[in-house]
Amino acid sequence: MMTLRQVEVIRAVMVTGTIGGAAKLLNVSAPGISRLVKYTERSLGIRFFQRQNGRYFPTPEAENIFEQINGVYKKVDDLSEIISKIGRGGLSELRIGSVPSISQVMVPRAIERVRRRYPDLGIDINILKIEEAIDYLLLGRGECVAMSYRLEHSGLEFMPLASGELYCIVPPGHALAGRKQVSAAEITRYPLIGIDPNDPYGRIMAEIFARNRLDYNITIRARFGTTVCALVKAGLGIAIIDQFTVAHGGYPGIELLKITEPTRFDTYIAVKRGAPLSLHVEYFIEALRAEMRAVEPSRNTGKAVSARVRKK
């Protein structure tokens, strides 16, 4: 039997026609090539080459063997190419979901990291409502979903992502503009956009208002953060928004005020319980967690979201 190393050496001599040429091709010493050729011929009882004027020519009895060697070598090349493609993300697809608040800024930043590591990886991103995430995972449509809160479900597993805070957003020129922070009582003095007590973030503020016996007036209901920001920018009211939607200047042209009362919340990655995760989704989770934790209040001492986001 011939080893792959012997196949490689015999083929190198066949291709280059000299021991020296084969040594350069394989980046090894010429004596080592010569010894391995002689050992292979002796152990197999076959003469592969005849030497003429310093060059090596295949013997008639070895021609069929060389044909097979080329076939083996091509399969090794094909295997190497497939391994290279897999290493670059080729032949695979990353299928992930996210709630809108995390998808606006954080997911694209994490995907940029994924793309750098796996440049050929196919990527499919779905923006999901919380209630859509269950079927998305259980039916195998995707491998993970970035969630704004965890729910109880026997078929799902939740892994921590990062913690965040809520901010009050106001349009330029508003009575609260230019402030660094604002209390819940001050917020209720103005028309509010988008506070939904059934929403994870809305529930936090609704509980603060209820605990302080504060009445508030919702003039416009809007579920998604980007819509809420656009309505505030248009001067139609003020709103409460999570810090991840507006991180890194994600929505310029509005001003952000820290809320005096505690508004901390936790985010999670949801996966199907017991389902193995691909290397690509594991790296995406790692990248998303790094991006989100980089702007956590406790890790960035309030510098994560600047007090003012100006127009670019």
TrEMBL record:
Single Gene Ontology MF annotation? DNA-binding transcription factor activity
The reply to whether Transcription figures as a keyword in the UniProt entry is yes
SUPFAM superfamilies recorded: Periplasmic binding protein-like II, Winged helix' DNA-binding domain
- Some GO term, biological process aspect, for this entry: which one? positive regulation of gene expression
Sorted alphabetically, the keyword list is: DNA-binding, Transcription, Transcription regulation
Query: Which InterPro entries does this UniProt record tie to the protein?
Result: LysR_HTH_N, LysR_subst-bd, NocR_PBP2, WH-like_DNA-bd_sf, WH_DNA-bd_sf
Looking at the keywords, is Hydrolase present? Answer: no
Which parts of the sequence belong to the HTH lysR-type domain?
2-59
Source taxon at top rank = Bacteria
Q: Pfam families, alphabetically?
A: HTH_1, LysR_substrate
Q: Write out the function statement from the record.
A: NodD regulates the expression of the nodABCFE genes which encode other nodulation proteins. NodD is also a negative regulator of its own expression. Binds flavonoids as inducers.
Family recorded in the similarity comment: Belongs to the LysR transcriptional regulatory family.
- Its protein name is LysR family transcriptional regulator
Q: What organism is this sequence from?
A: Bradyrhizobium cajani
What are the leading ranks of the lineage?
Bacteria, Pseudomonadati, Pseudomonadota, Alphaproteobacteria, Hyphomicrobiales
